[in-house]
Amino acid sequence: AQSVSQHNHHVILSEAASLELGCNYSYGGTVNLFWYVQYPGQHLQLLLKYFSGDPLVKGIKGFEAEFIKSKFSFNLRKPSVQWSDTAEYFCAVNAQNSGTYKYIFGTGTRLKVLA
Amino acid sequence: SQTIHQWPATLVQPVGSPLSLECTVEGTSNPNLYWYRQAAGRGLQLLFYSVGIGQISSEVPQNLSASRPQDRQFILSSKKLLLSDSGFYLCAWSAPRGSYNEQFFGPGTRLTVL
Q1: A39: pLDDT confidence band, cut at 50, 70 and 90?
Q2: Cys-Cys with B35: which of A90, B47, B69, B88 at CB 3.0–4.6 Å?
Q3: Which residues in chain B are closer than 8 Å to A9, comparing Cβ atoms?
Q4: Phi and psi at residue B103, to the nearest 5°
Q5: Quick one: CA torsion of B97, B63, B88, B14, rounded to 10 degrees?
């Protein structure tokens, strides 16, 4: 069965610090990978996605993620966080050609950025 | 453009009462539809998904059921609520069968069972 692990449940950073949130998945086939963000009081929204091609993908608000197939990882990064990045971040996986259209989510990482 | 609606936004129900949460999508056809429950520290738990009218896949055996009476309508129900059904319920849609794309989420329903 597919699963997604997010190693950091709570992260506290000061503004301008660099961010890296870990995401590992388990599935032997081809996957689509996503990072979603939920700002306080707002809907879940897509931050970035990877389907194929360049394993380094760039998303909104200066975020990027790198797909490392050999490590089954899709870590999220931002070189310099802002107070407005305070939110909960979810990694998700969708297995291509699995015969289902399920998306499996990690447990989320709550990021707090101190001004 | 596509939009997704959920109602009600909040709901307080007594134990043993029935439940009906509704989700509708506008601006797309044949979407895949999903119900999730979001709990603090546990992420999003997929409850049901549907690839077409009347087609429901259940992911977690529990006290809830789902139905899709129309192409863009997805309903989450229960005949008798339990305390453990309290939570934040999210509806989502994605592009139709045969394509893979991101999901779009509704605003959610906060359910409290007393």
Answers
A1: very high
A2: B47
A3: 41
A4: -95, 155
A5: 140
